[in-house]
Specification:
It comes from Actinomadura sediminis. The protein is α/β, with parallel strands linked by helices. It is about 35% helix and about 30% strand. A hairpin with a 2-residue loop joins strand 12 and strand 13. It is elongated. The two termini are about 30 Å apart.
């Protein structure tokens, strides 16, 4: 649905050049929710704005629903962009218009007849749970309700693709959860393809099927969330499952084990202890449902150094687990640290 190839965007000002997006490749499959995670300045907002050509890239290709947007001009480009909705961090509502008026605005621009426009607005407000607030003004509703208006407005033209620019970062945790639940519901009910950017691990954990971590204009890792979580050394895995600090005993092996799906129900720790007569120390762990699958992460301490424990590590890997041996002094990123 979205295909980006070798995308590059450079800003030039006062004799300086800043490369915001540096040769990024991205594929978002039809009907999935794809999250781009990164700190401020990573280039993720520029990347998102290049998808609907709010920013025109210096080079590369942007294909949405089979159309090469950079090859289009005039009316053709306007029609293609109508298939891409966008919601913003700070809502962007018109204060002089009611809730219904804000949702109707893009339909007016598209020249939709009044009766058809009124029916579509009513349908959209019902979809986002704001039917009772149709006549209210933005100043009279909460932040979460404002974002629901923004979502309804973005869906007015029946887009196939929805772009989300930090849509929950200005909201409290409870409201964030409700907006993410709404986005996931819309994704499933309408078959929307959603590309979102965020600095919040919780957003990726709650609704993303696939994700990429962006730093300095490039992706450091990208793919289905469950695959990234099972990949040794994954930044995403360390961020989504922050484990507590550890003080390993001298001469021990500290191992981080990630397990997905059916492996979460297997007693591999007790099986390892029985097979090798080991005292296995569990230093931390968690099991959660992410992208529709149960995913777990454990930090274990085994007696002896890694060379002594080669057979034990092989046993865990042969059980289908992702195994990463960590240096005793190394600590994983917490979600808060990764967001900064």
């Amino acid at each position: 649905m979205i295909q980006i190839e070798e995308l590059r965007k450079v800003y030039r000002a006062r004799g300086r050049e800043v490369t915001a997006v540096d040769g990024v490749d991205l594929t978002v499959r039809e009907g999935e929710v794809f999250g781009v995670l990164g700190r401020s300045g990573a280039g993720k907002s520029t990347l998102l704005r290049c998808v609907n050509l709010l920013e025109r890239p210096d080079s590369g290709r942007v294909l949405v629903d089979g159309a090469d947007l950079l090859a289009l001009r005039g009316a053709e480009l306007r029609r293609a962009r109508q298939g891409i909705g966008m919601i913003h961090q700070h809502f962007g509502l018109l204060g002089s218009r009611t809730v219904a008026g804000n949702v109707a605005f893009p339909l007016e621009v598209m020249g939709v007849p009044r009766a058809e426009r009124a029916a579509r607005v009513a349908e959209l407000l019902d979809l986002v749970g704001l039917t009772d607030h149709a006549k209210a003004y933005p100043a009279q509703i909460s932040g979460g309700q404002k974002q629901r208006v923004g979502i309804a407005r973005a869906l007015a033209g029946r887009p196939k693709v929805l772009l989300s620019d930090e849509a929950t970062s200005a909201l409290d945790p409870e409201t964030t959860a409700s907006i993410l639940e709404l986005l996931r519901d819309l994704n499933r009910r309408l078959g929307l393809t959603v590309l979102l950017i965020t600095h919040e691990m919780e957003v990726v954990k709650r609704i993303c099927d696939s994700a990429a971590v962006m730093r300095a204009g490039r992706f450091t890792e990208s793919g289905p969330v469950t695959e990234l979580l099972a990949r040794p050394g994954s930044e995403l895995a360390r961020g989504l499952f922050p484990l507590p600090p550890v003080e390993p005993r001298p001469g021990s092996t500290v191992v981080e084990v990630t397990f997905v799906g059916g492996a979460t129900d297997e007693p591999f720790v007790s099986a390892l202890a029985r097979k090798y007569s080991l005292d296995v120390n569990i230093l931390g762990g968690a099991v959660e449902t992410i992208a529709g699958e149960r995913v777990g992460r454990l930090r274990l301490e085994l007696p002896g150094d890694p060379s002594v424990n080669a057979a034990q590590l092989a046993f865990l890997r042969e059980a289908g687990l992702s195994v990463e041996v960590r240096e005793p002094a190394a600590e994983p990123l917490t979600a808060e640290e990764d967001a900064r």
